[in-house]
Amino acid sequence: MSMDMIPEPQSTLDNPARRVMLKGGAGAVAALGLMQMSPAALASSHSKVPEFAQWKRIEDLIVHSANTMETVRGAIRSGVITPSPTLFVRNNLPAPSASITENMDNWEVSFEGVKNPRSLKVSDLKKMGATTVASVLQCSGNGRAFFPHGAGGTQWSVGAAGCVMWTGVPLKDVIESMGGSVGGMRYITGTGGEEIPAGIDPKTIMVERSVPMAALENAMLAWQMNDEPLDLAHGGPLRLVFPGYYGVNNVKYVKRVAMTENQTEAKIQSSGYRIRDIGVKGSAEQPSMWEMNVKSWITGPLETANTGVNLIYGVAFGGSKSVQKIEVSLDNGQNWQAAQFVGPDLGPFAWRPFVFKTNLKAGEYRVVSRATDVDGTAQPRERFENERGYLHNGWEDHGVTIKV
Ligand SMILES: Nc1nc2c(c(=O)[nH]1)N[C@H]1C(S)=C(S)[C@@H](COP(=O)(O)O)O[C@H]1N2
Ligand SMILES: [Mo]
Prior knowledge:
With about 400 residues, this protein is mainly beta. The protein has helices at about 15-20, 25-30, 40-50, 120-125, 170-175, 200-205, 265-270, and strands at about 60-65, 70, 90, 110, 120, 130-140, 160-170, 185-190, 210, 220-225, 230, 240, 255-260, 295-300, 310-315, 325-330, 335-340, 340, 350-360, 365-375, 400-404.
């Protein structure tokens, strides 16, 4: 079995562009996260959800497959922190047995590429200190459904993202306690705890990711999410978290953390999650999905509004740095006006809900939002065309059409 053979969930309709157009079909509309599902659709979604995710709020999720569920656009509203039952789930491989979270403190993780390599249990890590960081967790392919060329992979709309609180020990402290990194190491490589079936070359399917050493600054080993023990669905007993980096780098059920000279040769790193032109195969020279870019989208209203005063809600984040400004346009970007951030600022890696107050007359409005990060980089209008539909932060595709 190769990575390509892992059932990549596909939509019932092959062409995502067509899907976007089919606003009349409830399935297609629900897939874009524009409305709540019917009771029948809800029941069928429930049956697709695996055991490990049965605790989720199914009505807040679009179930693409047993390993991929996205948050309905309207479920975020003006939420600073995404409730765990509403947060998306994305597994490349079937999740490990739930038995690994029965005694979380006993989970072991090995450290390599440090002066004094050793293994530690979660209970040991818990004695080394703790910190809490709010950060956006977002899949590299969030927004893939908007690519007209039919980018392969889960057809995520806006819901392969959430903002959560991680609690754990700074990785830097753990590495320092082991004498620091061995000289010449340039990457931090994390290995997921999934069991690889016998007879398969592990490199072809294992979830092992490398990020540049600079990411050590904010990295952590987390055992808690949103103030609760980290559930199996989100990587319990222990997860490697790189605030500001795309989801895939945040290795769940982490069993090995290594300071390495080179990036891992696992396929998920060497040819997967690489930015390339449409039609080009993935390879290690192409940019990897590491730091996230500035992005925002409207969370409500999504289809209709009444005449008079309306509050338009959304979320905005800078990705790997703070978001500074958010603007809203009611005419697909011809005129922009400043919107207001609401709620607490939970730091550079968190998203900020925003609100825009406006008086609407009867008519149809194309409502779009545009965020700017602290460096002055604003969301572009267009998506950046690429084979796998990564990095999408173009404001035009992310807008909503509202009838008043
Ligand atoms: N061990 C392991 N870690 C993993 C994955 C996985 O399949 N196995 N999927 C990655 C991907 S592609 C994403 S987008 C995020 C999703 O995190 P979530 O399921 O907690 O929302 O986890 C990442 N970490
Ligand atoms: Mo992902």
